[in-house]
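BUG: 3D viewer hangs when loading the predicted structure for this chain

Environment: internal workstation, default settings.
Expected: structure renders.
Actual: progress bar stalls at 90%.

Input used:
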Amino acid sequence: MLIAWTTVASRADADRISADVIARNLAACVQIDGPIVSRYRWEGRVEQAEEYRLNFKFLESQAATLQAQVLATHPYDTPEWVVVRAESVAEKYLSWAESNSSTPPL
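C-alpha cells produced before the viewer hung:
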C-alpha cells in the first residue's frame, strides 16, 4: 500500500478532488486535514497560507493513474505530490482496501 499527500487552498477543492478519486476507485480512502498552516518560499519570497491536506491511501497498481488524475485536476501550478510506501499494513485493512479500490472506475 502507498500513501500520498497534496495540499489545496480551499475545502471545496479538497472535497472535489477527494470525491473524484473515490468515485473513480483510485484510492481506498482520502482523508482531509485542515486548515493547516504552510510556510514556504515561492518565487523568491517567504509565503504563509492556510491549506487543506489530502492524504490518499491506495494500491501500488493505482499509483500512476491516481497521480495523473490528481495533478490534472489540481488548482495549483506546482502541486505538492509526495508518495511513500507503508512499511506495514494490517491484513484486514489491506484486504478492505483491495476490495474497495480495485473495481473498474465509474
